[in-house]
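TL;DR need structure tokens for one chain.
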Amino acid sequence: EQVQQRLISSGINAEYGIIGRAGTGVDNIDQNAASEAGIVVMNTPGGNTNSAAEHTCALLLAMCRNLPNRHNELMNGKWNRINGIELEGKTIGIVGLGRIGMIVAHRMQAFGMKTVGYDPFVPAKVAAEKGVEFMELTDMWPVCDFITIHVPLLASTKHMINSEVLSKCKPGVRIVNCARGGIIDEDALLESLNNGKVACAALDVFEKEPPAFDSALIQHPNLIATPHLGASTAEAQIRVAREIAEQFLALRDAKSSFGCLNAPLMRDVCGDPAKAALAQNLGKLLHALNPKAESISVKADSKTIAPFGVLIGYLNAKGVSANFVNIKKVAADNSLSFEYSECSDGITVSSGDVSLTGKPNENAGLLTAVNNKAVEIALPGDDVENSEKVMEQLISHL
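>> reply
TL;DR here they are.
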């Protein structure tokens, strides 16, 4: 199912709306639309790892003997004892050395395979510690008897396996894709299956799902196809459901931003929620005293939580929806900026002839200075700018 702009803009009304993907891939979510709407996009990167790795291994083994064909022949009364090949002694190239790729490497090493691999984010030393020889892709293609794909679908990985790459591969190579459809150019793969360059391919994912069942690729005798089953185990579904629920609660309570894909500021917020609350309250109070600010001076010990929190509070008080997911864009759209300078003593915000200083506490913060005059005003958690008690105390010190 696609979670796209029309659904997103239909309205998730909360301080932080969340779209949770109980799994890894999020190419079915319009992250840009979610970010603009202030909605966190979250996945569970580890919940289906073992399931996807096991399915990859099952397809690798099935390709060695082309088991679906042998099964179908037997069902049709044919006793066809065709020789296959062994895994032992062969070289498998693993494109993507993340959790799934590394598990596949470990399992295939148990079969006596030589494991080589590539990942732009994994150092060669780390790969070597797992028994994987790091290779650049151009060096890897010609030496592999098997290739397995474990990367996300991005602009840089779309049709990564194409006619040019397949022409560089060893004759009779076998290819598995349990990652994402579109990483392999299916037209190029069909051509290579027809001319024998690729001896067998196993696909669990396709550019269009479901694919055309009568297509030449799906009907090819040397293709093993499964209907996107990588995460389809009872154990994996329980894990990802539990993990996404736990991540929702952790984010709600500002304990962890694990799994957040489009909200880098949330990591800092979860690290110091009291400071985030104070910054937003100072922004709201500043708006009450100076509602036409275009730039706000922020002095604090944080370049992220403090200034962006102040801008959020200021814009919220102005009636503009903003949070730590979309604040950069919303502030730019509203011509509101900040000037940051480092200060180790609380947070000070100023604009025009108004200056406010506060310190975080276990509640919503403590106002400690107004225009450099010492005060001690406890800030409430909600609608601080509408608190008559706070505003009376504040104005009395101006």
